[in-house]
Amino acid sequence: MADSVLELMKLLREADEASIDAPSLASVVESLPRYRQLLSFGQTVCWDEPMKAVLIEQMVQHGINMPFIFGVHDTDYFSKAHSAMLRDGDFVIIGRNDGSTSNIWAATCETALPFGCEAAPTVSDYISCGIPLGNLARCSEEGILGFIDRWTEAWGWKAIVHNSRRGPVAAFICVGNVLPKVKELISWAASNAVEMVDMPLEAHRTAVAQLLRLINECANSVGMGAPLSKFYICLYRHILNKLIGWTPKNLLTTRSFDFFRFNSSSCMLERFKPLDIFLSLATREVAASAYNEAVANTGIYSLSEFGENAIPFDLVSRQLGRGTVCVDGNWLIVLTGADRRRVERKACEPLTNRISLARCVEEAFGDECALVGKAVITPTMLCSEGVMVLSETGSAYMHITKRFVRMLNEAGIKLELSPLLRICYSTFDAMRNLNAILRLPSHLARFVGSKVVSAEEFAGSWRNAISSANSIIEKMIAMPSPRATFKMFELGIGVGDGEIEHLRRRFEIVSSELSKFGREIETLVMECRQLAQEERNIIKQLMELQLQRSLLKSGSLCADEHEDTESERQSLVSAILALQGRLSELHHKRKEAVHRLKSLAYSEEAAKLRSIRHELYLKVFHERLSLARDALLTAAVPYSGFRPCAWWFCVLDTNGSWWRGIRELAKARLEEW
Prior knowledge:
Helix 16 links the parallel strand 12 and strand 13 (420-424). Helix 8 (202-222) runs antiparallel to helix 9 (228-244). The chain is of the alpha/beta class. The protein contains 25 helices and 16 strands.
């Protein structure tokens, strides 16, 4: 996902354009049988992964029974904050902002309310919108960090993170360790989602209770000591059953720790084929160069930054945790932990192919290890075996992976990869089928024009609301001044009860009074500058006359060129005295002008006007800040639509009408490498 809402807006425009041109899901499904299988690996079932049930339904309708592998990606670290937080317990539930939680990495267990997502308006977003956030924060009673946290907080999104700088690998988190927080998170989300329905039905509250009961049942089914990913698999199957009414026979569930298990028995599977180009002496240098060039200027480490002789793969085991693989001749080095601890093993043969590496791993660490590519490489591993299924905005690193594959092709190294399958959900358009009255969050209501609307009305108006929010953001970027703020409110966005107009009038009156002071001050400043310039000119003339006088007095001038007469000396003295008198007069005038300037600039009246204007200035920019936050949060709403949480339909869609709309409007496209 993009680092700021302004960056996300660009991604969403591109996704929207791609989805408009995309064919229906049904037409794309017809072309799938020529591929081996479908694969989908997500880190949490609490988000949009189960939404891919729409694809399964279409496959069944077309009589396509090809395998669909759903895997929980548990070979990465559990969500972490990068620094321990001052809270009790190993796991905490937090939101995202651009202050105290700006550095969290969340994936293993996150969720959002309808219309919500992790997109947080950043400090840079606000500055781009012409808002002096630093000045506002410094004047805030809650303190700078508290102010930044509040105004940059993402709406309707929370995640569970491990309370440490570097969390454990998700595969080794037990259900019992995190279950209380999972229940707390889902309870918060589901209960608040129901409150977004005006006069919720008993069926809605029953659905929330059923969802929480299902969480308990799945946890008890797999056992409290089981890996969290196995609990997710169980929950995934039940959510699918609720969405489509049955458990698909072609659905195969796994976790990435099992799927990428790497030993002498599994190493020749197609999923490990991308490993070859980084081990073979013939291609290693070219592959490393392509990788480094692909990740340049993206914030992703180059291979040399991981360590000498590093390849873009991680070894995962209970013994090691997760560590970068380095290969140097016969030596296997794994750099693991925050301190890059080196674990070294020497093989009896050069590690130049998958088999030799697998033997070394097996001998050193046993056969319970997984070898998984880093973020840029993993898609090539999955697409070596089948079609990787993603949502329209899924996988933020995919453009980098494509760049890497393209550079390999240009260097003559061809990876045989199946295409990506992008699914586009028309989540909010499909609300036209939902029989409910919605209570919108305040930022969205501002642009829709009403706090309470029917789902059908929202389906017909939400795109215009997004367009209005985008327009306001563009105007803010183009017009950063305080007066421009009032012009934005004149557009009818959030005018309210006349407070803005009253504020504008006061601001203009005080600004006008200060302008009068400003003009008088500017006149005095110009007078002082002119007097100072005259003084400098006279001082220069005095220096020249003093020099002439000195030369006459010393007799250095030739008698035949300049008569050293008493008259000439008297003339110089008179001129000097006259200039000194004028200099004294100018100095006195400038002193008086400076005094008048200070008296005017620091007068009680001027100070009072400046104080009032500063107060109004802060109020104006607070109004602009409020408008900017609402616009930025509203502009991010389409991301929520592209990646809806599947449990929304279990809780809010009591008769399945919303889901049927999702199924009917779904689009898809095959994305080649």
